[in-house]
Predict the 3D structure of the following.
Amino acid sequence: MIRVLEIMPLSYSAMAFIGDQLSFFKKNGYEMHLICTPDKDTYGFVEKEEAIYFPMDIPRAIKPLRDIKNMWRIFRYVRKHKIDVVIGHQSKGILYGMLPSKLGGAKFRIVLAHGVLEDTMTGLKQKIFATENKLMSSFATHVLCVSPSVMRRRVELGIDKPERQRILGRGTCNGVDALKKFNPQIISPKIAEFIRGKYGLKKDDFVVGFCGRLVRDKGVTELVGAIKLLKEQTPEKQVKLFVVGMLEKRDALPEDTVNFLKNSDDVIFTGRVDYSEIQNYYTVMDAFVLPSYREGFPTVVLEASAMALPVIVSRSTGCIDSIIENQTGVYCDITPESIAEAILTFEDKEKAHQYGQAARQFVLEHFEHTKVKALMLDLVNQITSKRD
């Protein structure tokens, strides 16, 4: 039996980016292992997925002594369990996974590139991080990128050689469940009525949605600026910003942006919503916006699209691959003026409906999770069939 180890910093990310791939691979003859930082949901998740779990506190920031200790532990784990395939997710998963697993004897080592952190860096800092990623990539046997633009950007920065890169169809690492979860046809209208009542949304309100980490990189400051601009220039329009997510200390928002999110009558700020309920919150939105500075492949855009919402995204890495321009969504510059103009595009309800239906079809054809995980299985089957 071939043994596969997935390494990812956060448990939440493991559930979102890997999901039921663990049990799917197990049903297809693989022994699945997972290393991530534990939280209250981790043990139930791995039990359901029938995976072998090794808890490890993986800090997001660089902690030299702890990082070295953790890498040593992973080296020993790979060697003890005779792991054949190691998949490292995100920066820390790649750092922890590639060299230790090579030294530990794992024959196949896959960098799963969820994005390009260097996109928001400049000068020497960008060169240092690109060089570090190039070094980690050199210890891998394959590089799996989540979008075409991530592939291109990593080549431009000198991190990868094109011939070593792979992609699953049109991108993502797991897609979304557009049939049993993110499907507007199976959600009762009473749920939308309840949420609208809970947050005081009126029938004539035009609700613009955002879902994700509330940080500068996501363009939240510029999005807030767009809402302010619409309020000033078109006070007769009942535009509401519906924000689902949590404030973070890392890459924190400016104080005035936070105050607006918390106190403005034009904003509904829900805070964190459990993933089991997140699909319900899309039902009250008329359009979805993600003016991000960088992404890998934004899962939230797929979720919103699967829920038949028209989408507004920036032309940044990752985002640019998540819509079909003027069919499923529109692009915006990361400025309040451009975002505001894009929002007004979907005041036309018929146009918004047409885009939303096309967006759902786009997801069903290319990103429905059963198709994506089958592509992932095919890739790993192909790689491991080359074993001596």
